[in-house]
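From the methods appendix. Each design record in this collection lists the tokenized structure first, followed by the designed amino acid sequence. Records were kept in a plain field format so they could be parsed without special tools. The example shown here is representative of the layout used throughout.

RECORD:
FOLD TOKENS (647 positions):
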């Protein structure tokens, strides 16, 4: 086949590959997709001008040098980033050695593998929509490579995809799911997926507030909690070095007891963990599969090394305290303070001397903090040296981490065991999807003190800015931090409605598609009366699902084919079927005289009726001016033609 005949299919393949790789610009080193696009453009230029391909030596160098650069950039050729970038460079190299139609088909097959790689980084509805667009482009190129007319190729490609969708749906539901992510390979992204750090210092939580990235979603069953009750606990920090708080993970495991008078809230959470830790509404009492409660009322994922998104079920009491016994040795750990911050220590010790009873001492600490004229702001001045003294007696401006750190130091200095809890507070309720969306901007820090055998939550930020826990960060910060335009104004109602609808769609997608994991598949199989996901169960559902899909599809295709045939041809086919049932070997290619010759064995009356039908057929089809009712009369006689079977 001449090279000019491959020009349009070749451009279609290159265009489909370029479209497929566009999302990878967000996840790979920028030079890799850019080089891929340049190499495809070079190949397109060679196709357009019908020039010779580069020599094998130049092609080898053109692949090895970028692979070496990729190794120097990522220090790996596996994992999500390394493996996908390596595949991208290999596909570009393959494009520069395509010569005939077979080579272009191989390149197109590689494009179908490439289309799935963006899903290794993002599985949202936008990523799925882009996958459908990529599959359409690749299928369109495949249709052109098969030699179809360019004018009908888009319609044919769309029809192929639509007809394959029911089969894809059956395979999605039935094929066994892996318990972990498909891409269980190392990743270069080592940061916390929720945005929380493994330590807390002045400004560490405040840096997350301008981000509107979703952190996790929660859906409650039955009664909805109040926004002020939504304290989502993630990490506990119990060691202070004078500036930063860190997690000591004390080597003890004391069973905690929860207040029995609080109603239980049951809910599902979809979140990505940080080092195995997951958000939970205080205080959790029931946990589902895949997670467990550990010391300090923290929620840990069972497979700690897996940082993929997880859906888990919890039951919480929305309580500000829980009961826990603590030995004097462990109490001393929660009272430790480094040297420094003398003014803070002096003020706390003075309050402790005036209020020997611990509960009264705690109330006095809270009243003292309220009386200091502190201001809640996102952009406090930088503090050096004794940071707690600098905050309480100097700048008097801070964000939630300043308040939590200062109050915890005050409590310890006053002889009350205390620690810092970091997580999220509040969230945005979506009425369309009936779920709560918690963003990075909802990050929060508060204190916990141990009194009378129980850990009691104390939110020092709420003492100064009570609207933070009631109305949320968006309402608390504009009055306290006018330098934050991102959250300072309320968007129009139409924009909020549109945003909520999109959030509801994303939530449904994550719940029913991305969240369809091995556990949910096992539950579905059991509801269908099967004992789990086994080979026999998969084969049974696969056969039944394919029958439900393919039988109606085949019936529709046959009906559609019959509707496309002319009326005269349909009538002729009906006559042939009746002759075959009578034992006559009638073929589609037989003429009227051939049919009469084959029908010699019919009964005399049937043979005469067939002869009359065929003569009338010839007059209907070939007369210069056939009667207008000829077709109707012939069909009426055909309905009466019921030949008896020959001997």
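DESIGN:
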């Amino acid at each position: 086949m001449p090279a000019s005949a491959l020009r349009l299919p070749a451009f279609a393949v290159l265009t489909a590959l370029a479209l497929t790789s566009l999302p990878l610009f967000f996840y790979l080193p920028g030079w890799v997709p850019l080089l891929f696009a340049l190499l495809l453009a070079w190949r397109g230029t060679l196709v357009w001008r019908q020039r010779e391909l580069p020599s094998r030596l130049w092609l080898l160098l053109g692949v090895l040098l970028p692979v070496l650069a990729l190794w120097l950039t990522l220090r790996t050729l596996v994992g999500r980033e390394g493996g996908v970038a390596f595949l991208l460079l290999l596909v570009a190299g393959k494009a520069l050695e395509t010569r005939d139609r077979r080579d272009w088909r191989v390149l197109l097959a590689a494009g179908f593998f490439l289309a799935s790689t963006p899903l290794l980084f993002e599985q949202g509805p936008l990523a799925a929509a882009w996958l459908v667009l990529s599959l359409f482009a690749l299928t369109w190129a495949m249709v052109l490579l098969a030699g179809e007319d360019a004018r009908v190729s888009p319609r044919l490609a769309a029809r192929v995809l639509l007809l394959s969708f029911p089969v894809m749906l059956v395979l999605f539901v039935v094929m066994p799911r892996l318990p972990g992510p498909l891409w269980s390979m190392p990743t270069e992204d080592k940061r916390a997926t929720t945005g929380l750090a493994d330590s807390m210092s002045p400004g560490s939580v405040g840096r997350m507030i301008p981000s509107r990235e979703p952190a996790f979603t929660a859906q409650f069953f039955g009664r909805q909690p109040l926004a002020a009750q939504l304290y989502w606990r993630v990490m506990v920090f119990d060691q202070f070095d004078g500036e930063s708080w860190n997690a000591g993970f004390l080597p003890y495991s004391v069973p905690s007891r929860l207040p029995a008078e609080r109603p239980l809230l049951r809910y599902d959470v979809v979140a990505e963990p940080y080092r195995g830790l997951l958000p939970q509404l205080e205080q959790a009492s029931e946990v589902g599969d895949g997670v467990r409660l550990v010391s300090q009322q923290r929620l840990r994922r069972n497979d700690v090394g897996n940082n993929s998104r997880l859906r888990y079920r919890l039951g919480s009491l929305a309580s500000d305290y829980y009961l826990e016994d603590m030995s004097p040795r462990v109490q001393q750990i929660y009272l430790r303070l480094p040297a420094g911050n003398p003014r803070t220590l002096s003020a706390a010790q003075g309050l402790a001397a005036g209020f020997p009873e611990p509960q009264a001492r705690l109330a006095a600490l809270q009243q003292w903090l309220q009386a200091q004229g502190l201001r809640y702001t996102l952009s406090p001045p930088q503090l050096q040296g004794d940071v707690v003294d600098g905050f309480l007696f100097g700048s008097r401006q801070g964000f939630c981490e300043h308040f939590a750190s200062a109050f915890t130091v005050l409590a310890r200095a006053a002889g009350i065991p205390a620690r810092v809890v970091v997580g999220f507070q509040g969230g945005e309720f979506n009425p369309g999807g009936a779920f709560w969306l918690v963003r990075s901007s909802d990050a929060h820090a508060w204190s916990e003190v141990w009194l009378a055998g129980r850990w009691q939550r104390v939110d020092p930020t709420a003492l100064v800015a009570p609207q933070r826990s009631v109305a949320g960060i968006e309402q608390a910060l504009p009055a306290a931090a006018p330098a934050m335009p991102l959250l300072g104004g309320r968007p129009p109602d139409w924009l909020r409605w549109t945003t909520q609808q999109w959030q509801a769609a994303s939530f449904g997608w994550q719940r029913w598609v991305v969240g369809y994991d091995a556990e949910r598949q096992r539950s579905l199989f059991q509801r269908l009366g099967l004992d789990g996901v086994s080979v026999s169960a998969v084969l049974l559902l696969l056969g039944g699902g394919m029958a439900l899909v393919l039988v109606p599809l085949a019936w529709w295709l046959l009906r559609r084919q019959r509707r496309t045939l002319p009326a005269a041809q349909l009538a002729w086919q009906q006559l042939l079927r009746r002759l075959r049932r009578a034992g006559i070997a009638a073929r589609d290619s037989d003429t009227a005289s051939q049919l009469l010759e084959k029908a010699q064995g019919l009964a005399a009356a049937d043979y005469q009726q067939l002869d009359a039908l065929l003569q009338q057929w010839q007059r209907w089809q070939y007369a210069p001016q056939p009667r207008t009712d000829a077709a109707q009369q012939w069909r009426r006689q055909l309905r009466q033609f019921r030949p008896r079977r020959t001997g």
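APPENDIX NOTE: Confidence is low (pLDDT under 50) at residues 181-194, 479-488.
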